[in-house]
C-alpha cells in the first residue's frame, strides 16, 4: 500500500505540468498529456479571443470569414512545385486555419495585405505586441486608402477609354471631333493618377 501511495504522489508533479502554456508572440505550446478540468480553463485563456469578447460561435464565424477572404485573394497560401494542381478553396482555408491557430503573428505578417479592417478583431489576443500592433495599424491604413484607390482606377480607365476613342476615330473626316484632343488633354489633367507617372504622356515643349 505504501508503494502505491508513493507512486501516486510521485506522479502529482507531472500531472500538474500538463497545462498549456502560451508561447512567444501568442503561439500556443501543448504537452501531449490528457488535460484535467482546470487545464481546460487555462487553455481557453490562451486561445484566440472572440471578437469584442463574444461567444466562441461568433469567433468561429469571424475567423472563417477572414480565412475565406484570404483564400480568395491572389496571395499564395503555400509554396508549390511546378506542375502541381492548384489548391482548392477548401484546401487553402484548411492551411490558413492551421497557420492562424498555431502562429497567428506569422499569419498576420504574411497575409496582412489581403486583410480588411473588420478582420482585425480576429487578432485581439495579440494586442500589446509591438509587431502585431504595427501590422494591424497597417491594415487599418490601407483600408482607409482603398476607396480613394478605387476612384483613381476608375478615372484612369475613363481616360484610357477616351484615348482609345480618339485613336479609333477619323478626326479629319468628321468636324465634330475637331476639339476632341483638347478635351482629352483636359480629362488627362483631371483624372490621371500620380501612382502611374511613367504612363503619363509628356507634354510637347515649344521650340526655342
Q: What's the arrangement of secondary structure elements?
A:
Elements: H1 2-16, E1 21-22, E2 28-29, H2 37-46, H3 56-71, H4 89-102, H5 104-111, H6 130-168, H7 180-191
Antiparallel strand pairs: 1-2
Helix pairs in contact: 3-4, 4-5, 6-7
Summarize the structure.
The protein has helices at 2-16, 37-46, 56-71, 89-102, 104-111, 130-168, 180-191, and strands spanning 21-22, 28-29. With 208 residues, the chain is mainly alpha-helical. This is Coiled-coil domain-containing protein 97.
Features:
single chain; 208 residues; mainly alpha; two-stranded antiparallel sheet
What is the number of helical segments per DSSP (H or I, 4+ residues)? 7
Read across the widest sheet, the strand sequence of neighbours is 1-2
Taking pLDDT < 50 over at least 5 consecutive residues as the criterion, the unreliable ranges are 4-37, 39-47
* Count of distinct structural domains: 3
First-last Cα distance: 112 Å
Order of helices and strands, N to C?
Answer: HEEHHHHHH
Structural class: mainly alpha
Counted beta strands: 2
Helix content: 40-55%
Question: What overall geometry do the principal axes of the alpha carbons give?
Answer: extended
The gyration radius over C-alpha positions equals 29 Å
For the sheet with most strands, the description reads:
2 strands, antiparallel
> Mean pLDDT score, rounded?
68
Strand content: under 5%
Amino acid at each position: 500500500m505504501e508503494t502505491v501511495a508513493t507512486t501516486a504522489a510521485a506522479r502529482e508533479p507531472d500531472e500538474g505540468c500538463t497545462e498549456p502554456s502560451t508561447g512567444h508572440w501568442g503561439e500556443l505550446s501543448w504537452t501531449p498529456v490528457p488535460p484535467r478540468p482546470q487545464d481546460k480553463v487555462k487553455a481557453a485563456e490562451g486561445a484566440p479571443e472572440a471578437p469584442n469578447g463574444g461567444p466562441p460561435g461568433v469567433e468561429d464565424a469571424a475567423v472563417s470569414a477572414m480565412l475565406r477572404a484570404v483564400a480568395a485573394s491572389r496571395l499564395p497560401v503555400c509554396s508549390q512545385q511546378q506542375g502541381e494542381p492548384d489548391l482548392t478553396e477548401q484546401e487553402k482555408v484548411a492551411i490558413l486555419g492551421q497557420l492562424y491557430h498555431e502562429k497567428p503573428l506569422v499569419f498576420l505578417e504574411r497575409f496582412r495585405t489581403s486583410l480588411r479592417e473588420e478582420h482585425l478583431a480576429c487578432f485581439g489576443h495579440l494586442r500589446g505586441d509591438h509587431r502585431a500592433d504595427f501590422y494591424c495599424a497597417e491594415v487599418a491604413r490601407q483600408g482607409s486608402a482603398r476607396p480613394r484607390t478605387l476612384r483613381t482606377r476608375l478615372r484612369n480607365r475613363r481616360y484610357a477609354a477616351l484615348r482609345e476613342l480618339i485613336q479609333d476615330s477619323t478626326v479629319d473626316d468628321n468636324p465634330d471631333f475637331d476639339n476632341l484632343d483638347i478635351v482629352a488633354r483636359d480629362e488627362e489633367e483631371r483624372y490621371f493618377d500620380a501612382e502611374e507617372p511613367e504612363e503619363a504622356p509628356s507634354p510637347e515643349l515649344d521650340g526655342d
